């Protein structure tokens, strides 16, 4: 049993070299995928943004425009208006989702009969495809025979022209978007609340803290890291929202409910100003990347904290 | 400070009786320890007193006033939990002040109490730290400080030292004992560790399967256990239990060759008892002796090992291993050794029921 | 040591990401002995065991087994078995398969009939024969620990390493398992290297004890030698129940003055000791050598009982004096209460002087310090 193997150098030293090979071997498919599907298109995009051309008329060649596309974008009043509109939409819808989402998550904390069934039902809107949600609400918001106006009239108010007026249309999209994404907040908030140990609440109860005191001094601060992540995710997502606007308003009435994403889609696939669209896409990419960086930095801080 | 009384306390979870008819009075300033194996109902009883569990039967009285209907926050109790329950997002200082803030105490008063607590616990240098950066012993100290700052009627502790590394547990135990006597607050403490109970308690409540087995001060429980369970649970190393069979003029140990007689200090009533008995004797009363010396019995010594200043030895009787202790210096140097049983340590138990048998009850 | 050396660790060094765990550790374990590695958490006990087994690569030093350098040998070739603190049983296998696991590996390739016999014998030794077809998840802590030990022993390793195997169990279980470990050792004389931070556990089974801290050995000897000649303050802190008491002391001419009126000891009584001027020393005394009595009864120092610990057959007290303290066992019939004033003194011929900076022992009293 006393295996006296003195030629151990290969056995021990073998490890580092084969290790590295193995690591690279396992990583290469993913790396290739990333390269092909992500890196390449983004570089093409950035490349296109410096040219004045259109894919339709690719044959007629490309004119170098330098930063011309960007200059055009930054001086376009309409584009700025669209940014403002998009900002309004994002803030209102995210705020609404949070208020409703946290409220519902709190209500669902205590176990009652049918709670789990209710929770599953509540998650459903999130599972639907945005286009489907968009058309669903489009029909519901129809001024003549839509469900929403029916309920409004039953409640004793005048029927509203939802999709024909700018502010109403915005409200309609906000309602649809909130309906679809509040479940996400409920989910994350529930997870955040469940992550708080029960003994903390018992200790607080023993310490004499009432329900409101416990919520504002314990629940919120302790759930804050997760909720912050949820906030950033929703902000990024809402910024990109296109399907709902397409289905519900088509950018209308007129072009008053065109978000930046909507404008981008129009420029790229209706007018086919490829260069200009690419520039706008790059701008959007930078904004969203900025938000994502904040998210990532916060995530790493979160895992290091408690 | 308050006197706590429990009358016929029962807690049922469905069909399971976690606490069964518990009766107890804790005097003002007393340190009472609920001791028992896991699942014996001690934690449930404590949580009932705290108001975190509902009693299904019986009364809980604080200074004579029935508090069953009051919630935990209304009872003026303080609690330290097993797994630390400090608020992780608050500094030590804000943790300690939390209960005062929750009750809307004035700033000046809060500052005064904070100073007092810092003085008692010596935690001035960690006030700005967060719980996660403190070792478990320090965390429990902070938890104690937070508990005590309100002058609660009673201080409840649920296995507060279990989560602490063994090395530091002993330190904390000394501190806890000292602090409780300094502060004089009525304290109820739950543990499964009999060392802690012996060390800290004025009185120990030994529980098993939801019922109280024995209530006594530590010495009483050690010297005068009421049954085999109590005898075995308290004391480390554990008490030896040896089956007895009456023979002419003595008691035979565990079907072996050894017979204990009145010369060994066996009382007459034990020999004449009509019920089968079991002998309980702590290792500290079983000694090594010279093989032919007075009172020595020839029992083969299996193992002999020095433990610091003391020497432990093990011997076999009827298939079971028993232990004795002999201090170095008293053990004879010669090769042949025997075992001597010190009658001061003789305790007799009914072999069937396990209950302790005393002279009056023997016949 | 008359017995041959089974294991020799020489100058082991190991750092984890810049943090040193072993700093030149030297250790020798004789064939057939139980050697206990005693030290606080983070002292390097686990690192020592893992290095011995070959489960971590060391930065410097050598591991010799039976005189052969095995430093570069992979763990599987060293004929060592290890019992881990967390048991490390394989959850997908039942008890029998867990124990038999190593016997079925390419290295050993035992026949199934042989395996059955050996597993059966080992299971009987550890009294788990009735658990052989159980799922490991359903076992209690004590049972899991026995399975872990059985798994290690079934291979008849020439060296058994145990890393705090009993720390997850409660007190009563621990006592029982320790007795069985001693029993097994008596029957098979397996050399054991056992790591723990629990002093009581250590002395219950050790032939020799090695005190380790901060990656170096402070002392390795049997308990008697350690009690008579503790090598450093750390040894005094870890050994004994209660552990050694330390007093601030100062060398004044021909005497050692114990801080805060603890008394004076003649320097000539200490040997060998020739202190350079201004040496800072600490006096260490085993609690058994401290005399304690009611206030005014002893010509020494004055203190107050800080707390009392009831141990059943004896009591321990903590005495505070001038910001320092010591703990001592007193007989059960002596009734001290918290707050009592007491006086204390150091028994003649008892005491060790330690260098206050390095902690090493520099002298002891002429009588050897221990009765």
Question: What distinguishing features does this structure have?
Answer:
heterotrimer; B: 363 residues; alpha+beta; Rossmann fold; 2 domains; six-stranded mixed beta sheet; five-stranded antiparallel beta sheet; 10 helices; 21 strands; 33% strand; elongated; C: 371 residues; OB fold (Dihydrolipoamide Acetyltransferase, E2P); seven-stranded antiparallel beta sheet; 8 helices; 36% strand
Describe the structure concisely for a colleague:
Chain B is an alpha+beta fold and 363 residues long. Chain B has helices at 42-50, 92-102, 107-121, 136-148, 166-183, 194-200, 218-223, 228-233, 268-272, 359-362, and strands at residues 4-13, 16-26, 31-35, 57-62, 65-66, 77-80, 154-158, 187-191, 203-208, 211-216, 240-247, 250-253, 259-260, 277-281, 286-290, 296-297, 301-307, 310-317, 320-327, 337-341, 347-350.
Characterize the structure shown:
The complex is a heterotrimer of chains A (306), B (363) and C (371). Chain A has 306 residues and is mostly helical. Helices cover 74% and strands 1% of the residues of chain A. Chain A has one domain (68-305): MetI-like fold. In chain A, strands 1-2 form a two-stranded antiparallel sheet. By secondary structure, chain B is an alpha+beta fold. Chain B has 2 domains: 4-232, P-loop containing nucleotide triphosphate hydrolases (Rossmann fold); 240-362, no CATH class. Chain C has helices at residues 45-53, 95-100, 112-125, 141-153, 171-188, 199-205, 223-228, 233-238; strands at residues 5-16, 19-30, 34-38, 60-65, 68-69, 80-83, 159-163, 191-196, 208-213, 216-221, 245-252, 255-258, 263-266, 270-271, 280-285, 290-294, 301-310, 314-321, 324-331, 341-346, 352-355, 361-365. In chain C, helix 3 (112-125) crosses helix 4 (141-153). At the B-C interface, helix 5, helix 6, helix 7 and strand 17 of B face helix 5, helix 6, helix 7 and strand 17 of C.
What's the SSE blueprint?
The complex is a heterotrimer of chains A (306), B (363) and C (371).
Chain A: H1 9-49, E1 51-52, E2 63-64, H2 68-74, H3 77-107, H4 115-127, H5 130-140, H6 147-154, H7 166-194, H8 198-206, H9 211-239, H10 243-248, H11 260-269, H12 274-305
Helix pairs in contact in A: 1-12, 2-12, 3-7, 3-9, 4-7, 5-7, 7-9, 9-12, 11-12
Chain B: E1 4-13, E2 16-26, E3 31-35, H1 42-50, E4 57-62, E5 65-66, E6 77-80, H2 92-102, H3 107-121, H4 136-148, E7 154-158, H5 166-183, E8 187-191, H6 194-200, E9 203-208, E10 211-216, H7 218-223, H8 228-233, E11 240-247, E12 250-253, E13 259-260, H9 268-272, E14 277-281, E15 286-290, E16 296-297, E17 301-307, E18 310-317, E19 320-327, E20 337-341, E21 347-350, H10 359-362
Parallel strand pairs in B: 3-8, 3-9, 6-7, 7-8
Antiparallel strand pairs in B: 1-2, 1-4, 4-5, 9-10, 11-12, 11-14, 12-13, 14-21, 15-20, 16-20, 17-18, 18-19
Helix pairs in contact in B: 2-4
Chain C: E1 5-16, E2 19-30, E3 34-38, H1 45-53, E4 60-65, E5 68-69, E6 80-83, H2 95-100, H3 112-125, H4 141-153, E7 159-163, H5 171-188, E8 191-196, H6 199-205, E9 208-213, E10 216-221, H7 223-228, H8 233-238, E11 245-252, E12 255-258, E13 263-266, E14 270-271, E15 280-285, E16 290-294, E17 301-310, E18 314-321, E19 324-331, E20 341-346, E21 352-355, E22 361-365
Parallel strand pairs in C: 3-8, 3-9, 6-7, 7-8
Antiparallel strand pairs in C: 1-2, 1-4, 4-5, 9-10, 11-12, 11-15, 12-13, 14-22, 15-21, 16-20, 17-18, 17-20, 18-19, 21-22
């Amino acid at each position: 049993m006393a295996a006296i193997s003195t030629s151990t150098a290969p056995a021990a030293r073998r490890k580092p070299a084969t290790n590295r090979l193995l690591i690279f071997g396992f990583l290469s498919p993913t790396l290739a995928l990333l390269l092909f599907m992500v890196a390449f298109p983004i570089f093409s995009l950035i490349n296109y943004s410096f040219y004045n051309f259109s894919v339709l008329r690719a044959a007629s060649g490309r004119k170098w425009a330098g930063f011309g596309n960007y200059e055009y974008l930054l001086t376009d009043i309409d584009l700025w208006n669209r940014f403002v509109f998009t900002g309004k939409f994002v803030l209102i819808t995210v705020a609404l989702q949070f208020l409703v989402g946290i409220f519902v998550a709190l209500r669902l904390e205590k176990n009652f009969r049918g709670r789990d069934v209710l929770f599953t039902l509540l998650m459903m809107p999130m599972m639907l495809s945005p286009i489907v949600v968009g058309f669903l609400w489009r029909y519901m918001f129809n001024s003549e025979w839509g469900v929403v106006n029916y309920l409004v009239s039953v409640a004793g108010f005048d029927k509203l022209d939802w999709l024909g007026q700018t502010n109403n249309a915005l409200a309609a999209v906000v309602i649809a978007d909130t309906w679809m994404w509040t479940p996400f907040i409920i989910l994350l908030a529930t997870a955040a609340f469940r992550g708080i140990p029960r003994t903390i609440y018992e200790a607080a109860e023993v310490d004499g803290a009432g329900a409101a005191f416990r919520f504002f001094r314990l629940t919120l601060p302790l759930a804050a890291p997760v909720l912050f992540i949820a906030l950033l995710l929703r902000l990024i997502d809402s910024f990109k929202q296109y399907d709902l606007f397409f289905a519900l308003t088509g950018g209308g009435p007129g072009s008053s409910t065109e978000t930046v994403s909507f404008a981008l889609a129009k420029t790229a696939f209706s007018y086919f100003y490829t260069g200009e669209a690419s520039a706008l896409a790059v701008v959007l990419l930078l904004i969203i990347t900025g938000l994502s960086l904040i998210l990532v930095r916060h995530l790493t801080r979160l895992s290091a904290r408690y | 400070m308050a006197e706590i009384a429990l009358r016929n306390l029962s807690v049922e979870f469905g069909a399971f009786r976690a606490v069964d008819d518990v009766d107890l009075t804790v005097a003002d300033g007393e340190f009472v320890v609920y001791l028992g194996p896991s699942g014996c109902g001690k934690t449930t009883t404590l949580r009932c007193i705290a108001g975190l569990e509902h009693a299904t039967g019986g009364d809980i009285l604080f200074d004579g006033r029935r508090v069953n209907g009051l919630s935990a926050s209304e009872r003026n109790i303080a609690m330290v939990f097993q797994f630390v329950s400090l608020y992780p997002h608050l500094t030590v200082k804000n943790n300690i002040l939390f209960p005062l803030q929750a009750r809307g105490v004035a700033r000046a008063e809060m500052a005064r109490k904070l100073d007092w607590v810092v003085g008692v616990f010596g935690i001035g240098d960690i006030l700005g730290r967060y719980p996660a950066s403190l070792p478990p012993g320090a965390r429990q100290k902070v938890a104690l400080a937070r508990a005590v700052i309100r002058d609660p009627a009673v201080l409840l502790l649920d296995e507060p030292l279990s989560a602490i590394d063994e090395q530091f547990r002993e330190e904390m135990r000394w501190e806890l004992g000292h602090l409780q006597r300094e502060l004089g607050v009525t304290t109820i403490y739950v543990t499964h560790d009999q060392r802690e109970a012996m060390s800290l308690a004025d009185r120990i409540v030994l529980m098993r399967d939801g019922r109280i087995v024995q209530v006594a001060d530590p010495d009483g429980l050690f010297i005068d256990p009421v049954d085999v369970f109590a005898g075995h649970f308290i004391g480390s190393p554990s008490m030896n239990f040896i089956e007895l069979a009456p023979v002419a003029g003595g008691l035979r140990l565990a079907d072996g060759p050894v017979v204990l007689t009145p010369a060994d200090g066996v009382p007459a009533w034990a020999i004449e008892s009509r019920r089968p008995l079991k002998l309980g004797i702590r290792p500290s009363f079983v000694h090594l002796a010279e093989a032919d010396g007075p009172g020595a019995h020839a029992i083969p010594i299996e193992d002999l090992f020095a433990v610091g200043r003391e020497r432990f030895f093990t011997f076999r009787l009827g298939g079971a291993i028993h232990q004795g202790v002999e201090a170095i210096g008293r053990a004879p140097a010669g090769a042949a050794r025997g075992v001597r049983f010190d009658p001061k340590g003789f305790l007799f138990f009914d072999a069937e029921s396990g209950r302790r048998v005393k002279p009056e009850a023997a016949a | 040591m008359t017995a041959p050396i089974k294991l020799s660790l020489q100058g082991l060094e190991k750092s984890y990401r810049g943090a040193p765990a072993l700093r030149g550790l030297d250790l020798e374990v004789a064939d057939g002995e139980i050697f206990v590695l005693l030290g606080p958490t983070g002292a390097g006990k686990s690192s020592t065991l893992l290095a011995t087994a070959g489960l971590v690569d060391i930065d410097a030093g050598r591991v010799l087994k039976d005189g052969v350098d095995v430093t570069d040998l992979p763990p599987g070739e060293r004929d060592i078995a290890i019992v881990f603190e967390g048991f490390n049983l394989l959850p997908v296998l039942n008890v029998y398969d867990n124990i038999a696991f190593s016997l079925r590996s390419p290295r050993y390739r035992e026949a199934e009939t042989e395996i059955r016999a050996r597993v059966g014998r080992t299971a009987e030794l550890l009294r788990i024969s009735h658990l052989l077809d159980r799922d490991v998840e359903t076992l209690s802590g004590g049972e899991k620990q026995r399975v872990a030990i059985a798994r290690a022993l079934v291979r008849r390793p020439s060296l058994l390493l145990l890393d705090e195997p009993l720390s997850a169990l409660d007190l009563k279980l621990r006592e029982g398992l320790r007795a069985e470990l001693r029993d097994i050792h008596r029957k098979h004389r397996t050399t054991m290297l056992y790591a723990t931070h629990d002093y009581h556990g250590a002395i219950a089974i050790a032939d020799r004890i090695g005190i380790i801290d901060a990656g170096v050995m402070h002392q390795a000897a049997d308990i008697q030698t350690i009690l008579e000649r503790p090598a450093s303050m750390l040894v005094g802190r870890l050994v004994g129940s209660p552990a050694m008491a330390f007093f601030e002391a100062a060398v004044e001419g021909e005497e050692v003055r114990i801080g805060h009126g603890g008394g004076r000891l003649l320097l000539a009584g200490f040997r060998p000791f020739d202190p350079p001027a201004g040496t800072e020393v600490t006096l260490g005394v085993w609690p058994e050598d401290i005399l304690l009595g009611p206030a005014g009864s002893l010509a020494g120092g004055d203190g107050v009982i800080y707390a009392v610990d009831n141990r059943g057959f004896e009591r321990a007290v903590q005495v505070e004096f001038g910001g320092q303290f010591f703990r001592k066992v007193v007989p059960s019939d002596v009734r001290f209460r918290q707050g009592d004033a007491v006086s204390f003194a150091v028994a003649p011929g008892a005491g060790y002087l330690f260098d206050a900076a390095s902690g090493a022992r520099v002298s002891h009293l002429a009588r050897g310090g221990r009765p």
